[in-house]
Amino acid sequence: MADTVLYYSMSGKSRQTAQEIADALKAPLVAIIENRPRKPNFAGFVSGIVDSLLKREPKIHTSGPVAIANRIILCGPIWAGRIPGPIRSWLDEYGHDTADLIWVPHSGQSREWPKAIEEIVLLTGRAPDLIESFSEKDFARGQAADKARRFAAKLAGVVKNKFAA
After folding, report:
1. In the chain, what are the domains?
2. Where would I find the beta strands (DSSP E) of the chain?
3. What is the reported pLDDT for 70?
4. What is the pLDDT of residues 13-45, one digit of tens each?
């Protein structure tokens, strides 16, 4: 099974995590891009929060092809306890068709992600197969890159164990 690392990032932190995972797995890295991107400033952040709370689905495209038969490792922020609109748009359109979905949320506090998982279940019909959350503390302490590489090694082990039988 091939991996694709798919991400949405406004601040660059989720992109950084996705890049570390993609590099470690030697997997393609594909961005979810809003057709009308918001600016990475306070106003953009506030509009993202509002869109998350209202469960809006902006029009999106990706930076490259995503083979949905592959294992998708989806990295992105959590805004106001919810997934951001661009990720919601992608999951609503393609989430039911993914073979395996791994969720890698980035939030200010790690306790925020359960609400986002519930939303993923509503959009895809199932929970992600594996979850690894990243917090602002991981980035502030300089631990995010190492944590991402350890998680990628864990994912590589999951593949080996899954097909060893």
Report:
1. 3-164 (3.40.50.360)
2. 3-7, 29-34, 60-62, 71-77, 100-107, 130-131, 134-135
3. 80
4. 999 999 999 999 999 999 999 999 888 889 988
Q: Is 1 exposed, middle or buried (0-12, 13-18, 19+ CB in 10 A)?
A: exposed
Contacts of 80 (CB under 8 A, 6+ apart): 49, 52, 53
Q: Which residues pair with 4 in a beta bridge?
A: 72
Confidence category of residue 164, pLDDT binned at 50, 70, 90: very low
Q: What are the start-end ranges of the H helices in 26-111?
A: 42-53, 85-94
Prediction pTM value: 0.87
Residue 9 in tokens: 């990032």
Token readout for 24 is 């470690």
